User: What shape does this take?
Amino acid sequence: MSTSSSPVKIAILGCGTVGTQVVRVLTEQQTDLSARVGADVEIAGVYVRDTSVTRDPVVPTDVLTSDVDALIERADVVVELMGGLEPARTMILQALNAGKGVVTANKALLATHGAELYEAADASGADLYFEAAVAGAIPLVRPVRESLAGDTVTRILGIVNGTTNYVLDEMTTKGLDYGEVVAEAQRLGYAEADPTADVGGHDAAAKAAILASLAFHQRVSLDDVYCEGITEITAADIEAAAETGHVIKLLAIAEQTSEGVSARVYPALVPNAHPLASVRGAFNAVFIEAEAAGELMFYGQGAGGAPTASAVMGDIVSVARHAAGGGHGPRESNYAKHPLLPIGGAQTRYAIRMSVHDKPGVLARVADAFARNGVGIGSVLQVPDAELASLIISTHRASEASLSATVAEVREMDSVGEVLSVLRIEGE
Ligand code: HSE
Assistant: This one.
């Protein structure tokens, strides 16, 4: 470990959009950062597979190296910004096993192999920081892991994927269909050429797993998170949501009830009056409910080189302070053993939109199916149409199992044309 008289050496693994910005800040702000850390901070090297590739001029060519073993060996702090499971996992374990503090932005790795990484950090007493893994620049991991460590978090509702929020927002404001918006977003570079991880909800699911683990003090991995993306959302769903005073948002939800812990991702109806409803474009926001704190909301840029580098730099300063002056950051808190609820065990409200024949007795028959399955109706909106009326039934809280049984019965009714959509309602 360095003392305040020897420099703290930072190794950066990966030199993409975020890595480049981290190198820029470390170079441009070296004097201030050193003063904040209490020891000189310097770049030990930047690991890239191919040192001959032309890079942004803010990255000095003499810091590039393809010898990752030697780089980790001479570093005090290892910053992993490559993404993906391997070789990131192996390199982080190598650093932790050698007692080097690690900073990573790798949500997929943490959500999949978090337990292994935490155990390696614990065994060697090394730091493991990952503020940038959830919602980019937004300070969220530290508030949940440290500031709220004395409170009881009951629920987190997060817009943690900028691409999908952008797509849903464009669909809402321009009345466009999903495919049109995604194609335009790809053309403008807002969405990846292969947007599956974003639109399928998998990126948000990794973040939900990390948040649930931190909030509820137990291990929740990607496999424990129920996940639905936004690919089935239509312009008609968005229009119908507006009819009942809602917007559709892809939410990452972590919830603790008397039955257990639930982590889930799906597009949901959010009331216009809820603070998450006003989160526009590619912005992220996370709404936290805690017993003593009440409601908290965190908002900002969830992606991009400089915003993500901001979160990475905060972690680098924390770990470098420990490297210079001793001490270490928070360890994993995983003492709790609440049951992890499958999606069938989660309770929420629903909006079911269907086309029905506008004849006497139809509403009574539909309502009867809800009653027989124990699903309470909160409100009914009927919008007349040329042949079939459109009916939107909002329920009280119900289990997925009861709701599915209700919808199956309704689908079979002669008086019902089609069940057009079943969406959950959150934030009410
Ligand atoms: N692809 C993510 C998003 C950012 O669209 O928000 C990185 O997690």
Observations:
- Residues 143-301 form a domain with the Dihydrodipicolinate Reductase; domain 2 fold (CATH 3.30.360.10).
- The pocket of L-homoserine is lined by residues 161-163, 198, 203, 302-303 (CB under 6 Å).
